[in-house]
Amino acid sequence: MPRARDGRLARLAAESTRRDSALDVDYSTLSAWHRVRAFVRDGLLRAGIDPECAAALRQGPAAGEMAELHTKTGDYTEPAGEAAAEHAGLAGEFRARIVGIARRFADGHQPDFASASLAELLAWCFYRRGSCDR
Questions:
Q1: Is there a domain that residue 17 lies in?
Q2: Rounded CA Rg of the chain
Q3: C or N: which end of the chain has fewer Cβ atoms within 10 Å?
């Protein structure tokens, strides 16, 4: 009997861990979307551009989803150990791509705000602030 009970407990623990991991990934994704859109919206306002003209800001996860997920997960904690190393690697790859896009704006070119992707708008905002390598 103890062996069967231990097996059931192990399965329940594994199930709980998978569910928690999925919620952490969902929360991280929604949190990133929210932060990027807020940064881009602020950058457009600072440049005197109406954020409503940027279709990319209206796409993606809604703020309601973010609030709903926050109540499910509580406070998010950064990944640790192996997950943190993978997270840092992905962040470096993302940064390199944004810097590559930002270099297109070195000649003063501006994106078409109505059709630009969120990545292009983010790169443009970083470039305007001088945060990207040139």
A1: yes
A2: 20
A3: N
Asked if the structure places residue 79 within a domain, the reply is yes
Q: How far apart are CA 26 and CA 50, in angstroms?
A: 30
Count of domains observed in the chain: 1
**Over the chain, what HEC string results?**
CHHHHHHHHHHHHHHHHHHHHHHHHHHHHHHHHHHHHHHHHHHHHHCCCCHHHCHHHHCCCCHHHHHHHHHHHCCCCCCCCHHHHHHHHHHHHHHHHHHHHHHHHHHCCCCCCCCCCHHHHHHHHHHHHCCCCC
Residue 69 maps to a domain: yes
Residuewise pLDDT in 10s, the chain (134 residues): 567 766 676 676 666 665 555 555 566 778 888 888 999 999 999 999 999 999 888 876 554 444 444 444 444 454 555 555 555 677 888 889 988 999 988 888 899 999 999 999 999 998 988 754 44
User: Is residue 134 assigned to a domain?
Assistant: no
